[in-house]
Amino acid sequence: MLVTEKNQLSEDIEKLVELYGDKRSSLLQILQAIQKKYHFISDFAQQEVARLLNIHPVEVYSTISFYAFLKLKPGGRNVVRLCKTICCDLQGKTDIEVAVKRELGIEFGETTKDRRITLGYTNCLGMCDVGPAMLVNERVFTQLDTESAIKILNELK
Amino acid sequence: MEELLTNNKMKRSGPVLFSKYKRGAGIAKALELGRQKILFEIKESGLKGRGGAGFPTSTKWMLTAASTAEHKFVVCNADEGEPGTFKDRVLLIEYPELVFDGFVIAGYAVGAEKGIVYLRGEYEYMLEYLENYLKQMRTDNLLGNNILMNENFNFEIEIRLGSGAYVCGEETALMESLEGYRGEPRNRPPYPVNTGYMSYPTIVNNVETLSAVPHILLKGGSWYNTFGTSKSTGSKLFSVSGDCNKPGVYELPWGTKISELLKLVEAENTKAVQVGGASGICLPKFQFNRTLAYEDAATGGSIMIFNESRNMLHILRNFLEFFVEESCGQCTPCRIGNVKLLEGVEKIEQNDYTFAYINKLKELGGTMQVASKCGLGQSSPNAFLSILEFFKDEVFHTKVDGGENGKER
Description:
heterodimer, A: alpha+beta, Glutaredoxin, 4-stranded mixed sheet, elongated, B: alpha/beta, Rossmann fold, Ubiquitin-like (UB roll), de novo design (two linked rop proteins), 3 domains, 6-stranded mixed sheet, 4-stranded parallel sheet, 17 helices, 10 strands, 14% strand, globular
């Protein structure tokens, strides 16, 4: 990591702590904001957050590791999560799964080489009546077929 | 198709959602009634928690109202993670006036000054819409300081996002998460009404519970309890999905028969109905005359319909994979039990099992129901036990009438 990048990250985290407060109860909000901008929460970021909230870094690590949407390892610029719970499964999730893997040339859980997309699963998105459903960053897409799913992926920058 | 905020279709609205409601009317009525009367009306209505557990709302409110703590909190549980449940999504988008008016009323009734909506991370797409709605409420003096010119009543609502953890829908786990910790359930007691968010008395209510409150106040608790059964009063939103022609959210009185619901949603060739989501029970045809109510087939709203073409073992496997992932890992029965049950399903799929083993797994399921720390582990064996019981012919191929022999594959 370049020194300038480090400084930028520290500055960002300081701003977030100022915005949400330096209490433990602000931790999740701070982590969510870091995740959103950097697509993962690095060791350095964890240490910075811990320092500013005056808690042990392991507390930060432990919290991150609990939540499915917070990541410890770098991910792509876009995170695509396909719902795999039963109703979407019965409405053709497997077809989407196969098509998406073929299109991107990666497995679920992996990131494309150009860091454009991280592919993953999620549990029930609450779109059971309009499945199959997919979460793209924070946007939700429903009633997918293979054509529309691939189109959505290819439009991601 | 991108899920926009207008895509929700209410397939059928009942007494609560059908009646016209003007934003703020419930709050005005609440201020007119005063705290004691609000609590009385809620008690009269018999309203119970709509998230699935069915704890009487009035008891929760009264316990918190009676507390003399310096601060009190109201939390709206919008961490709708149960597979097959999507009523809160529809309520928040289509009827925010009911949800948030109910929220403010709850704050007034118990004497809280701060409310927090715990919105699941998956629903972040509606965050901006909800924030704008709250802004509008502030402009109209329905939120903030001196609500409706009432000098002693200040109430503020904050929306906090979850980060993809099913167990955070459990109220104590939800509070751990709000406090910035891992979303692991706490020991109960103490209950949140004594020791909740930041150790202050807190009421945690489901989105749907809050949305029933304004109408109860406007029309009276005795009006509300004319709907439903004696133990389950009022109406309920059912999110229906799976094999039927008209999936969607239906508001029906408690006590509706499963067969009636199936007719309404135009389900054909139904083999099984999963009532209460992945943590609920799976009912076969001969039980379709059971009623949807807290005292019979209880549900937080999730109704999933499976037709004759579905493989029950596949469905069970999907549920158990869900629980293995979503168990917080804090207590052993749940963390290990779910893995063992999933292993059992895999063995059955590979036709590599003995009934002695299956019986052991059923015992394990029973142990999990009593020994797990929170509702997740206590209810996760439900699907396993009910599917193995009601669909044993299919799962274990018990019938020996020649089977597939001689038939073209």
